[in-house]
Every structure is written in C-alpha cells, then in structure tokens.
Amino acid sequence: MSDAEQTSESSEWQPTASYEADPASVSKVLLLYSGGLDTSVMLKWIQDQYQAEVVTLTLDMGQPGEDWDAALEKARDLGAVESVLIDAREEFARDYVLPAIKANALYGGGYPLFTALGRPLIAKLAVETARAHGCDTIAHGCTGKGNDQVRLDGTIATLDSDLGVLAPVRQWKMGREEEIAYAREHGIPVKGGTEGAPYSIDDNLWGRSSEGREIEDLDSAPDPEVFQLVTRPELAPDEPVELEIGFEAGCPVSLNGEALGLVELIERVGEIAGEHGVGIVDHIEDRIVGLKVRDLYEAPAAAVILTAHRELEKLVCTIHQNNFKSGLESQWAYLCYAGLWYEPLRGDLDAYMDSVNRWVEGRVTMRLYKGQVIPIKRNSPYALYDAGMAGFGESGGSFSQQASPGFIELFTLQTRLAHRVRDGKGEE
Ligand code: ARG
Fold this sequence. Notes:
With about 425 residues, the chain is α/β, with parallel strands linked by helices. The protein has helices spanning about 5-10, 35-50, 70-75, 90-100, 115-130, 150-160, 170, 175-185, 260-275, 300-315, 320-335, 345-355, 385-390, 405-410, 415-420, and strands spanning about 30, 55-60, 80-85, 135-140, 165, 200-205, 205-210, 240-250, 250-255, 260, 280-285, 290-300, 360-370, 370-380. The strands form 3 sheets. A 5-stranded parallel β-sheet has the order 3-2-1-4-5, sandwiched between helices. The protein has a 5-stranded antiparallel β-sheet with strand order 10-9-8-13-14. Strands 6-7-12-11 form a 4-stranded antiparallel β-sheet. It is elongated, with a radius of gyration of 26 Å. Arginine binds next to helix 5, strand 6 and strand 7.
C-alpha cells in the first residue's frame, strides 16, 4: 500500500472511543469464541477483513452440555492459529459468585446477575491470554444494543489500555440471513435451518438467560420451550424435597451434611431445584444502554442458595445491620450489572459484606415444592436469638417485660409530641 493510500484509509477511520482497535494496526487478534454461529463467522471475517492472525479463547464457566473439544477443533478448522480453552469454573465460583452471595445480589429485585458476574472474568482472562500470545486486539461477539459490550469493552480498557477492542457485530451490518450466507460461502457449518433467529441464550454455573424473538412481546406468556434448566412448576414432582445447606463465613460449604466444593455444590443444588420447578424469573430490566428489555431467567441454584443465605444472615445480624445492608446490596448489584467490577466502591462494599459475613455460619433447611423455596429450619451458633428469652408470657434471660412500658414511653416520645403540637395538621 502506498503512503497516500494509507493516509486516506486511516483518515476515513474515525474512532469514537480511545480503546477501539484501529483497523490499520490490527495484526493479531484474540477472539472470544463460543463455537456458535456469530463467533465462527467472526473468526473468518477478521482474517479476511484485516489479514490478521486469530487466536481463539473459549471459556468453561459451567455452561451445561457443551462439547469443548468440538469447539476447539472448529476454531482450528476455521483458521485459528491457536485455540485456547480455560476451565474457569473454580475462579468464577470463588471470586465472582461468592461475593454475589455475600451481597445477596439481585438486580432489579429478581436477576441474580450470572451473565454480569461472568463478564469481568471473561475480560480478565482475555487480557491475560492476549498478552501471553502477543495479540494487539481483543474481539468479542457482543451487539451494540446490550449490556455485555459495556462490561467487556469497559473492563478490557480498564485492565490494559494498550489493547484495542473489536466488536464486529457492532459494525458489520450483517443480519442473520447475511451471516448464514457468509457462513455457507466460507465453509462454516450452520446448524438447523435458516428459519428466524434463535433466542439469544447466555449461561454459566449461576444461571441461564433467554432473550429476543417472541420473548420481546410483553403481552405474551413465556413459551414453555424456552426453559431448559427448570421443569415447569406444574409438572414438578408432587412430593417436596428438603435441602439443608451449611454455611461458613457466608460461603455455602455443605449439602445435606456432605461437605462440597462451591462449584459442585452449586451444580447439585441447581439440578435438584430445577427438577422441582424452582428458579424461573420473568424479568423486565433497565439496561445500562437505556433500553428496557424482557428476559427469561432460569437460576435454580441461585434461587435456593440466595434464599438460604439471606435467611441465615438475618438471624445473625442486628436489626441495624439488616436495615443498613439492603441499601448496600442494591448498590453492589448495580455496579456489577453496569460492568463496573473494578470500581473502587465495589471493593469498599465487599469489605462490608465480608465483615458481616464472618458470622454467617450454620445450617438452613429449605423445602422445594413445585416452584417454591420455603426456609423451614435454621441453626447458627451466632444466632441473635434465644428461644427462652423470646417466649410469650414469660420473662427470662436478659429480656424483661416490666421494662417494656418505659421503653415505649421514650421510643414514641418524638412522634407523640409532633402529633400534639401539629394538632394532626398535614399528617393524614
Ligand atoms: N439481561 C442480562 C444482562 O444484561 C442477560 C444478558 C444475556 N446476554 C446475552 N448475550 N444473551 O446481564
């Protein structure tokens, strides 16, 4: 290419953001590769478009039923110079899901954040792998409409400002039909027919989401076909099941008395809960990028573990801690949702969550029945609870019923005064 041509090409390209990859300097790309249609088309497209080498990175984050060997082989068949697979399940559970459990994390009151929790780890492993393989650019399959682009671009730019980011779906203007045509033309295997786009699915150890197609029709009940992890509650067994989860320092450590590592515990709880119809959430969500969206979530393990954790935490914390923590929890959930994993405030909040969770030790038994999760037994050496002291009609321990009238007199003093001096005005 002559100097003149090069100048005219680079003057055409106008980056919107500092971290966007400059087409003229893309030479070795780390592609986040799932093995699906979008990222397979991307693998070829990047080689064609930029004459670049591509290293693929595929991550096992506990997605059920994946054939990892097949994904690696497909990447190599499509021209990847290297295809890397990392089993990230332990790290995901320990460093991302566990803090979420300690924070009782639910965004918008219902979404246990599994996708959002996975993104910062994906970005971190992508940066590490890109560096190890001498890549200058990281490419991913996010669209320009979702939260995931915010989480990945933002985290990559935070961790390494020398790496460029490419999001081909944001720029290539191919619809699904064009992608399929491109795939056929380039010898990329296409599963199934061409009829309509499938749901957009994202899953990991902590849950599974489905978006798009008729799910977007708010006026329609979910098609039962969407649900792959959770049995429809009405078809769940007629006999309930009881699960006892043991906690140490806020971390689930045993199931029905058997000590288990976090990954296995989550998997086992998820299976049993799914069978009993537990963990479906039909959620209207405020995306970071301004849109509202409807998501169908299946998060059976999260439904049980978060309920058990919250239950035990309530028992060992004071009224003041319990009231204070819920505000911090929604802040935590928002930062995670918004992809601001490296925001210092999250670290500050985690310090508080850890401090409270030192005392979250004990066992909670949950009854699962046709979609419901009901805590039925609790036991903790740190429970701020004394059956004798709370008994009706009795005085005992450190509680005195004789002291109550004095307490009530002082506790209600300001409210009573205000009512008197304002003569009930404006306080209907
Ligand atoms: N709405 C959820 C979130 O923003 C789920 C996103 C699922 N992502 C996907 N690529 N299908 O975290």
